[in-house]
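Recap quiz, item 2
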Amino acid sequence: MTRVSRSGVARRVGRPPGSADAQVRESLLNAARSLFLRYGFRAVSSRQVAATAGVNPAMIHYYFDGKEGLYRAMLEAAIAPVVGRLQAMLGEPKSADVEGLVRSYMQVMAANPWIPGLIVREVLTPDGSFRQAFVRDFAGRFAPLLRNVIGREVEGGRLQADLDPSLTVVSLLGLALFPFISLPVTTRVLGIDASEAGIEKLIGHTVRVLLHGIASGEHGHA
Amino acid sequence: MTRVSRSGVARRVGRPPGSADAQVRESLLNAARSLFLRYGFRAVSSRQVAATAGVNPAMIHYYFDGKEGLYRAMLEAAIAPVVGRLQAMLGEPKSADVEGLVRSYMQVMAANPWIPGLIVREVLTPDGSFRQAFVRDFAGRFAPLLRNVIGREVEGGRLQADLDPSLTVVSLLGLALFPFISLPVTTRVLGIDASEAGIEKLIGHTVRVLLHGIASGEHGHA
DNA sequence: GCCAAAATTAATCGCATGTTTAATGAAGAT
DNA sequence: ATCTTCATTAAACATGCGATTAATTTTGGC
């Protein structure tokens, strides 16, 4: 006996007719992407994701074995292309000059505004259960690559000879990443322009500061 | 009738004898400080704080009108001295050179390791209900002060003439703050030394990068 | 046509949270 | 001495969470 027989709106219990495609699974992944990446894993409930996807909360367990499985599945799909691009950037032996690297890195952040938020929540905040994996698979893989690039540039004479490569990676990340993770704040308290043109100026400014500093004198370095 | 009459350990119901001092209140504030500052507001439960303080959870509501009130009370006491010091740093007209400023700022972060975590959780993460107040009272007050200092240095000819003051504040914060908020990660993936000596080297390195950049060539700036 | 497998729903389970209540007993004022 | 106020406890309340279950319906192979 159908619960709401006079209205075709409410779905009946049981397997729905037709549609052999994995539509519910896709809806869940889409809803998970838009909600988890915007608000974070903790802040979004299973019921919210299910409601946004327009499906029953139990489907999360059915398809993904729970909230955490859904998050993982969605994340892997979302970060794969970004990881690929970053890895290509750092892997190519040519075009590995620091300026090009920083420009590409910052353009990736600008083109994927959810990444800085993800980094703040899942890498820099010691809360989540994903932090360990994130640090291992992300930072643990790219930071040494970056340090290698710096080391090569120092040995090639294109960077100052007595730079500590590890500390330089930290400075580079601070200069290139911090502007994006702080953007929601700096737009308000400093009037930073988050438009495409503004970001372009930010990138140019950052590259200049990183390469030549901000002092005006002829002090020379080291 | 006392519940546990044969053991003096369990506290009886009712107002305890003696002790007119606000000892329960203090215990709660202490427990709140050590837990909230280490793990964040969301991650710590009222019951946890009460258990750590060795008091009944209802006392949180009695003295502070709830978890949020306790957090606020504890925070105000904790950040007051830091805010005072930062304000003094940025207010004094003398000694406002950029190098001294960055050194002092980074020393404050090194001496109060809970501040970077607090910034990540309450300022850079758009979750909590405190974010708005934090941005207004913290970033909103210090960022313009910092920009003023930069502007004065530019006009005084001690910094490059065509620097954008707002973008320069972002770079400065990225260089000076990011190393601390990323310390738990960089110690693991880059082997950054978090000891006092290591931090001293980090500060020197950062000042040098900020003032003179990392390029080796004689390109000159601007 | 039958029957196992797949897909979906409503309902609920167990648990943790922040909060509130009612009872209780000491302190302090009159 | 009495009465109000203060400080405290144990218990429970309401809510929201992730997860699970049982029922139900369709599909697809035989």
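Chain A touches chain B through 66 residues (CB under 8 Å).
The radius of gyration of chain A is 23 Å.
End of item.
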